[in-house]
Design brief:
68% of the residues lie in helices and 0% in strands. By secondary structure, it is mainly alpha-helical. Keywords: Cell membrane, Membrane, Receptor, Transmembrane, Transmembrane helix, Transport.
């Protein structure tokens, strides 16, 4: 009877185990499918418009993001061409003189100046914020500009084409801000931004409001937090909308003479140079605790738009990554853990799995907040260290640079180009990696400290901790004991009572050699602990400094292996060469006082090509009259009539020695200019003016 009951119990346990294993496999497959669909097909902060369960309303929303970007290419290219048409080039080619209306047109439009400009810094930052979702699509490979799928070995060309497509689509936001034609740029930017806002609102309130997913699916759960992911996008587009409207109003006021047009004046650079020329104050100004410990503002320094835009994008990137992470983790905790709790009885003999399982949840959220705070501090340090390093270079201090660093111009300019993208990517990945490491450390703390205290009591845990710390304390005492014995017995006395330390000279050498011999074997054991401690410290410091590319994590002599830090150094050196206040002020003064008489204002309309050509000929003729020996040195002298050229040269030589303001001289000069350039109506006009100013 007992054997029968025992066999029935075993069969029931086997059936329960088989059922549990089957349901566990099904649960694992569900988790895998939901995770893959979330990462590859649905990201909460990206406006995806492709849905599975279609109705009549949903079929209207069945438009992919790739198709929307393709439709945006045409208006984007039209805006670029229109602004390029009104942009004039300084260099005019000869074939353009036949078409005066197109002369100098179709200049190169610059989206933004990453080197030295300080205008519209926050506008550019919000423009980057408006295109952040598209940048995240690029990061996760969600954009395919081709209508078909390329092989895997050509994946890099897909990313390159996708980046080019996103760059063209987003370019109107930037060129409308940077164009000198405020009215046209404001109108085009306003219309383009308004179109993007309408598409976003249509996607948010019309399409996504009609979506019906499964009740417990992650898509349905993510829709509850969809507005949180789109708030930065909407705010950035709204700021750009008001900015373009302000540009239009400002240009209208300028045209109505109610507002003066001001050019960019870098007053902070002039003030910086003036401070260098002044005698420093004898008494230092007392600073507050915030200025001494955290941050001190500098009125003589302004961050360029590259740093401001990069910092704003880093904050947005960390926010969106954290939001995506929290949505997925909350869904897992809410649904998957509920299903998992039905099978926890299998681990009832292992108290680690049954006592306070919510500690995992608490640890996850606490470490997420700590990782977020760490990322915010690191992003803030970017601005602090940028100002510190650039001001050190201005002062001639290059101690922070690697000793073997060679300043190659191509590498420095490449660092300027790569830095914004590197900093954003390092910040986001740094947050994820630091969070995972903190979460692992938090779980270790829970299972090593909190759970043992709950199961066995605080006194038992304290005894174990005391025994462990006793060994550590004894190791520390022995290491300290070596230093004390060396200082007391094996170093010679001070040569002077005023010395702080004993001289580095051995005493009691035989005793020292015996002391060294016996501790030789024990120090091998202590070296193992020191090695482990060094590994832990190095890993902790490297992980915490992973997102800070302004500080290298490589030891001395291996800094060149840290390519991200070399990017930072190249960017700093390039900025130093292009924005040094002393150099900039010197160039401004040189242009103002030396070239002011010949400098042409860009706002002044150029004269007609005929008048300009006649003026050049008049100046050339006058130069040749004053210096007749130049006639024979000109490369174009063989195009003129040989006899007329000889007569002109003979007259010029004689006129150079005698009186030149005679009717004969005027006639000979006309012969000279005709021989040199050929007669033209513009030349006749200039010679009529010459006759009036030089009467016979």
């Amino acid at each position: 009877m007992d054997d029968t009951v025992f066999n029935i119990t075993i069969q029931k346990d086997r059936r329960l185990n088989d059922t549990f294993e089957l349901q566990l496999v099904q649960l694992t497959e569900i988790i895998k499918m939901q995770f893959v669909e979330t990462v590859e097909e649905h990201l909460p902060f990206i406006p995806k418009l492709t849905f599975r369960n279609k109705t009549d309303t949903w079929e209207q929303c069945d438009i992919s993001l790739d198709y929307i970007l393709f439709l945006c290419l045409l208006p984007s290219v039209c805006i670029v061409l229109l602004l390029s048409c009104v942009e004039r080039r300084k260099k005019i080619y000869s074939f353009e003189k036949r078409f005066p209306c197109l002369s100098g047109r179709f200049g190169i439009v610059v989206p933004l100046d990453f080197t030295s400009t300080l205008e519209n810094r926050w506008s550019y930052a919000f423009a980057f914020g408006a295109v952040t979702p598209l940048m995240f699509n690029l990061l996760f490979g969600q954009i395919n500009p081709f209508p078909y799928t390329l092989p895997r070995y050509l994946k890099v060309f897909v990313y390159l084409a996708a980046a080019l497509e996103v760059g063209i689509v987003c370019k109107p936001f930037f060129i409308c801000l940077s164009t000198p034609h405020q009215m046209l740029g404001g109108v085009l930017g306003l219309l383009y931004t308004l179109a993007w806002i309408l598409v976003l609102l249509w996607n948010k309130f019309w399409c996504r409001g009609s979506i019906k997913y499964d009740k417990d699916s992650i898509e349905e759960f993510a829709l509850q937090y969809n507005l949180l992911s789109e708030i930065p996008h909407l705010l950035s587009l709204g700021f750009l909308l008001f900015r373009f409207g302000f540009m239009i109003v400002k240009d209208v006021l300028i045209r109505l003479k109610k507002h003066s047009k001001q050019k960019e004046i870098k007053k902070h650079q002039y003030r910086y140079v003036q401070r260098l020329l002044r005698r420093p104050a004898e008494a230092s100004v007392e600073r507050s605790w915030f200025q001494r410990k955290i941050y001190k503002s500098d009125p003589y320094f302004k961050f360029p738009n590259r740093i401001v835009s990069t910092v704003v994008l880093c904050f947005l990137g960390v926010y969106l990554i954290m939001l995506l992470e929290q949505i997925m983790s909350t869904w897992c905790i809410k649904y998957i853990y509920r299903a998992w709790s039905n099978y926890v009885y299998v681990f009832e003999y292992n108290s680690t799995w049954t006592v306070r399982p919510n500690y995992i949840t608490y640890t996850w959220y606490i470490t997420s907040a700590c990782a977020m705070l760490s990322s915010v501090i690191h992003i803030s340090h970017v601005m602090v260290y940028y100002r510190k390093h650039i001001k050190s270079l201005w002062a001639g201090d290059k101690t922070f640079l690697p000793k073997s660093y060679q300043m190659r111009p191509a590498v420095c300019v490449a660092g300027l180009l790569k830095y914004p993208g590197y900093q954003i990517a390092f910040t986001m990945w740094g947050y994820l990696i630091v969070h995972m490491v903190m979460f692992t450390g938090g779980l270790m703390f829970v299972y090593v400290v909190i759970l043992p205290i709950q199961e066995y009591g605080f006194l038992s845990w304290l005894l174990d901790l005391t025994s462990f710390l006793t060994n550590m304390f004894m190791v520390f005492i022995l290491m300290r004991f070596q230093r004390i014995v060396i200082k007391m017995f094996f170093l010679q006395d001070k040569t002077s009572p005023q010395d702080k330390e004993k001289p580095l000279a051995l005493n009691n050498r035989k005793a020292f050699h015996n002391f060294n011999y016996y501790l030789y074997f024990f120090n091998v054991i202590m070296g193992i602990g020191s090695c482990v401690l060094r590994l832990i410290k190095s890993a902790a410091v490297a992980l915490l400094l992973l997102s800070r590319i302004e500080r290298t994590i490589m030891p001395q002599g291996f800094r060149k292996l840290d390519s991200s830090h070399c990017t930072w150094v190249g960017m700093i050196i390039t900025d130093h060469h292009h924005s040094n206040p002393v150099l900039v002020c010197f160039c401004h003064l040189l242009i103002k006082h030396t070239l002011q008489s010949v400098r042409v204002d860009e706002d002044v309309k150029p004269e007609s090509p005929a008048k300009k050509r006649a003026h050049i000929r008049w100046v050339l003729a006058y130069t040749l009259l004053r210096n007749p020996e130049f006639i024979l040195l000109r490369k174009r002298h063989w195009h003129a009539n040989r006899k007329e050229l000889q007569l002109a040269f003979i007259w010029a030589m004689s006129a150079h020695r005698g009186n030149k303001n005679t009717p004969g001289s005027i006639k000979s000069a006309q012969t000279l200019i005709s021989a040199l350039h050929g007669s033209s109506f513009a030349s006749e006009v200039w010679w009529e003016d010459a006759r009036k100013t030089c009467p016979p």
